[in-house]
Amino acid sequence: MKYIRIYLFFSFSLTWLMWVIINNFEFPDYLSSILMIASVYIPAITVWVMKIFNKEDEITIVSLEPDVKKNIKWYLIAWIVPVIFTLLGALLYYSIFKNDFDLTFGRLQNEIINKTGQPSDTPITAANIKILSAILINPFINTFLCLGEEMGWRGFLFPNLVKHVSRIKTHILAGVIWGLWHIPLTIVGHNYGLEYFGYPWSGVLTLCIFTIAAGIFLSWITENSSTIWPAALAHSTINSMGKIPYLFLSTANPSNRLFGPAITGLISSLPMVILASVLIIKEKQLKN
């Protein structure tokens, strides 16, 4: 447990320090981006430094060898499942909050107006470009950014924590730790905004529910592929798809982001929670 405590101390303290600096001081956009990229690599850097200075070889780290040919199935699962479950979550949210659904892409038009000063004559085309980019391009580009986190959570924390507690407790603890790591971002409105009941702690709790469920899925593909890259791809796809459900959100109604429509919402995360539950049941059946 010693190395787990070291990992958690440095991953939390250094990342939180950088986020507090980024959120409270004004930097040029390019410098803020560089600092944010550096901050999400702190979990990976912490693991690498511990491995370098650890002479007893007590640390388990998942392989960085992509082995694409052998694991093509898991790369496809890592890419396709987050897309499907983001859309399922949005569908569930809009089936409950029907008045929130809008096919005129008003929010996208407002975004275009803010950038260009005038509305688009082809909002459907602009929406399609965003959707296709989120599915086909961005996940693969941003995989390298998500690798920094995944080297920490799935590459180090899960396989080392499971040595000390049961698998189900490991899933829950690893998911909660991952969610709590995001507290500074949740406080400044990331994922849920600033105006919701119980701010910010209900947002922290909601995110932890999602990170437990998503973490189970990411750990499952990591263990089956024996490499960290599919988890990084899945993580990247989740992030990439995050804004797509908002394309259909009406401007006439205030967004209740704590419930959805993004996959991190209480309602829209339910399909991922169900998937995670199925994976846990399968794990138990295999043990028996």
UniProtKB/TrEMBL annotation:
Keywords: Hydrolase, Membrane, Metalloprotease, Protease, Transmembrane, Transmembrane helix. InterPro entries: MmRce1-like, Rce1/LyrA-like_dom. The keyword Manganese does not apply. Residues 140-241 form the CAAX prenyl protease 2/Lysostaphin resistance protein A-like domain. One of its GO terms (molecular function) is metallopeptidase activity. One of its GO terms (biological process) is CAAX-box protein maturation. It holds the Pfam family Rce1-like. The chain crosses the membrane at residues 7-25, 31-53, 74-96, 129-147, 168-187, 199-221, 228-246, 258-281. PANTHER family: PROTEASE, PROTEASE-RELATED. This is CPBP family intramembrane metalloprotease.
